[in-house]
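Lab notebook page, bench 4
Experiment: in silico fold of construct C2
Operator: M.H.
Input chain length: 159 residues
Purpose: comparison with the prior construct
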Amino acid sequence: MRLSGRFVRVFQWIAPLLLPALVVFGRGLLGAPMGWMMLIGLFAGPVAMIAMYIAPIIVVFDRDAKAARSTRLFYNVASWVTWGALLVVMFTLVDGGDSPPFGSALSAWGIMSSDVSSNISGVALIIAVVGWVGTLATAIVGVVQSRSAGQATQALSGL
């Protein structure tokens, strides 16, 4: 898991720029029609980007992870869950503002219907949000653990 932690340590700074852009524009590159969802994505994308940068900024203050040049295991898992769910959203996001709704990339390829794709996209979006909350929680726990262990060591050395 050490290699995964090092990958997460680097990719956590790239993912907030890359993944919202892929969700908004990657659909069009994969053959899905670009409709109102692109306009919504242009406004929601920067908000998602800022929100996704909160956890990496918190991880900077994790002394143990910094010393290991890696990230903690549960932070890695939460990050992978968030990133994977956002990739699923990219493939399954349906532009439902029009009648009939424009299909997702998988609908355009004929793999699944727009209804199934919309349901999968909704579940994947919920999983992405839960994964993001998990990254925040694990980042905060990691910082608290690294700081409390350091204070206990300093208190013992002062005796």
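Observations: The radius of gyration is 19 Å. The chain is about 80% helix and 0% strand.
Next step: discuss at group meeting.
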